[in-house]
Design goal:
6 helices; alpha+beta; about 160 residues; 3-stranded antiparallel sheet; 2 domains; Arc Repressor Mutant, subunit A
């Protein structure tokens, strides 16, 4: 067994704590202020940034970092709220698109300021510009090692499987 050294443990333990605490803090803020989960917000915001506010369900699952099954359940709840609708993909009927409705867009617009404030409070404003760049670089490296790549287009970043 190749146990972690004291130095490796000193890096690993705070990282694991962050993996649990950051999503919980973001989820709590969104639940309290907007009545939605962080995953639901990721779905809505991903659709809001997509051309025509439309994405294939499989692409949306990847962008929101969730399984297609989980996404399908969440989209069903969002459909019942009038935020999203599903449509057959015009170019290939084998695929289903998720489309953000005007009501969904209004939910994003209402929710985003509080979410951005929480992200700033929990992460952005507590790091120096150098630390923020390093965090981005390390995060991108770790994602690439897991088979994902960050693609940036028009100033927007998204996750893609390699």
């Amino acid at each position: 067994m190749n146990w972690l050294s004291a130095e490796e443990q000193a890096a690993w333990r705070p990282f694991v704590a962050l993996l649990f605490r950051m999503p919980a803090a973001l989820d709590a803020q969104l639940q309290k202020e907007a009545g939605i989960s962080h995953f639901e917000f990721m779905v809505l915001s991903s659709l809001s940034e997509a051309p025509g506010r439309t994405l294939r369900m499989s692409d949306l699952a990847a962008l929101a970092s969730g399984s297609l099954s989980r996404l399908s359940h969440v989209v069903s709840r969002m459909e019942s709220r009038g935020w999203v609708r599903r449509e057959a993909c015009p170019g290939d009927g084998r695929f289903i698109n998720a489309v953000l409705t005007e009501e969904g867009w209004a939910k994003v617009v209402a929710t985003a300021p509080g979410h951005v404030e929480a992200v700033r409070k929990l992460l952005i404003d507590v790091l120096s510009p150098e630390e923020l760049r390093a965090l981005g670089s390390v995060s991108e490296h770790l994602l690439e090692e897991q088979g994902f790549k960050i693609i940036t287009q028009n100033g927007r970043s998204r996750l893609s499987e390699c």
